[in-house]
Records
---
Amino acid sequence: MQPKIKAKARCADGEVGSISKVIVDPLSLEISHVVVREGNGVDRQVPIAQVQEIPHEEEIILRGSLEEFRACPVLDRDAYVTHHDVEIAHLEDRLHVEPGEILVPYPRLEQGMPRRSFFMNMTHAIGTLIALPLAFPVLKYLMKPMYKPFDNSWFSVGNVRKIKKENIGYQFKFTRGFKEAFMPEQQIEKNIWVVKATPEVQKAVYGGKDKKFYDHKGDMVWVNKAKAPYIGFSGKCPHLGCGYKWRRTKNFPDGVFLCPCHLSIYDEAGKVLDGPAPRPLDVLPMQVNAAGEVQIIDVEYKAGVKGQIRLL
Ligand code: FES
C-alpha cells in the first residue's frame, strides 16, 4: 500500500501534517523518505523506516511521538531534483504520484570522495543485475571474429533546422533494423543528441584535431572535422548505457546532460562534470548536408570503461 500525496500523517500524539512529496532512491526506485508538511508549511523529511503503518491511501502512521517527528530534518529542497527533471523510466508504474511530487537526490558537484564512493559502491552492487541484459553485446564483442564487421552505414536522423540555440542539446530519434543470428530482424528506436557548438565547445570536444573513426580492420571510415559546428553524441550514457536527457537545473540554468540512472552529469561538450561515468559522451561520426539533413554512423562503444572500445 502506498500513501497518496496529501494523505494525513499521524504519530502517537495525533496528526502532524500531510504528505507533500516522496523521495526516491534512484538506484532501487524505492521510496527512501516521505516529506510531511506541517500546518505551518514546514516540510520535514521522514525516513521510510519511521513509517509504522499505512492503514489506507489517505493516512500514514509514524512511529514515535511528536517530538521525534520534529527531530526529522527540514527538507533541503536544493538537494533534490524532481522526477520530472530526470525522468526515471517506469517510476510512475511503481509510485502513484505525479512526477513533480517525486524528489531524487541531486548529485552535488565536486562533493568529494564519500558521495562518489557511495555511487561507485551502489553501482558495483547493482552492476551484476544491470550487466545481465548487456551480457550479449559483450559476448558478441568477445566473439567478434565470428560476427559480421561493424555496420558503417549512414542513418538520417533529422534536420538541424530544429536547433535554435548554440551549446544546447537537441534530441534526434531514428529507427534502425537489427538482425542477430537465427532471429528475425527487429526495428529498434534509438536516439542521439546534437549540439550546435561554438568554437570553444568544438575545441573542448576535439582539442583542435579532426576525429577519425575506424572499421574493424583499422581502416578509416570517416573524419569529423574539428571545426564542424554540429556535434552528435551517442544517446547511451558511457557509464552503463542508460538514455540521458538535456536538463536545466538550479546549478546549471543553461542546461546539462543528466543521466537518470546514476546521475552522471555532462556539459555541452560531453565532458563529465559529476557522477560515475568513466569517460565523456561518445561523439558519433556525423555529416550535415547543404539542406541541413543530419546523417550519422550508429557507432556504439563498450559501456563502463575509460577508453572507447567499439562494439557496433
Ligand atoms: S548509466 Fe549510470 S550514470 Fe548513466
---
Amino acid sequence: MKLFDNIKSGIDKISVDSLKDKVEAIKETMPKKDKAEKKPEKAAEKAPDKKEEIPEGHIKCPSCGNIIEKRALGHLKICPKCAKLFRMNARDRIRAIADKDSFEEFDVNMESKNPLNFPDYTAKIKSTQEKTGLKDAIKTGKCTIEGRPCVIAVMDSGFMMASLGSVVGEKLTRAFEYATEHKMAVIVFTCSGGARMQEGIISLMQMAKVSAAVAKHSQAGLLYVTVLTDPTYGGVTASYAMLGDIILSEPKAAIGFAGRRVIEGTIKQKLPDEFQTAEFLLEHGFIDSIVEREMLPEVLSRILKLHNIKKAGEM
Ligand SMILES: [Zn+2]
C-alpha cells in the first residue's frame, strides 16, 4: 500500500509539474501584449472615419480611399478607380455566373433551429434573415454556365460572415448528393469566417459531413471546382474549400485557417506582408490559378468543356 502511495504521489507530482509547464507554455503563446498595444492604434485609425461624411448611395473604397457612387461599382462590384473587388452577395454572384434564368435553387427555405439553445441566436438569425433576404449563409442550386450544366453553391459573407453552420453544411451535402446522383459537376464559391460558434460541435461536424459527400462525388469520377473569394477562413478552408479538383481564387482574396494575429502570437514571428493572400498561396502551390472576376464565367465554362460536360444538343 505504501509503495502504491509512493508511486501515486510520484505520478501526481510529475503530472502536476508537467501541467504547470504546459500552462506556462500556453501562457507564453497568448497574444496579450499585442492586444493592449493595438487597441489605441485602432481607435486612432477609426477616428477620422467618423468625421468624413459619405453621401447616401456612396461608399468609400478601402483600397484607394475614393468616395464612389455604389452604382458605379457595376454588377461585378469592382472599384472603377483602382479595380478593387468588393464582396459580392450570393444573389449578385449567381447573376454574374449563371446563364440568365437558368438557376434553379435547392432547399430554398431551410433554416437553422438553434440546436444548442445558444442565447440570442434565434433572434440574431431572424434579424439577419430580414436584413439580407437570405435564410442562411449559402445558396445552392443548378444552372448552366455558357450553356454547360452544373450544380452551383455560393456562400454569402453578409449572413453572419458566411459561418459554417448546420444549414450551410446540410445544403452543401444535398447539393453534392444531387450532383452525384445526376452525374453533374459542382462549383462552390467559398467565403467564410469559419465555423458558426452558436452551433458549437454541430457546426464542426459539418466539415466531415460535407467532405464525405465530396468524397462520394469524387469516387463517382465527377468534377469539383472551388472558387475561393475574400475571405475564406477556418473550418471552410480546413474542409471543402481545399478539396476541389481544381482550386481557383479571385485576386487578392484573403485565404487562411487561423488569422494572421493568432499565428504571429503563437509562433512569435512576424509574417510576410502578402501572407494569406491568393497570390502568396498560388506561389506556394495551394491554389491552381487566380482568375479575374469578369473572366470567371468563361474560365468555368472552359473547365466544364474540358471535362466533357456538354451543352444541350452538343455531340
Ligand atoms: Zn478603389
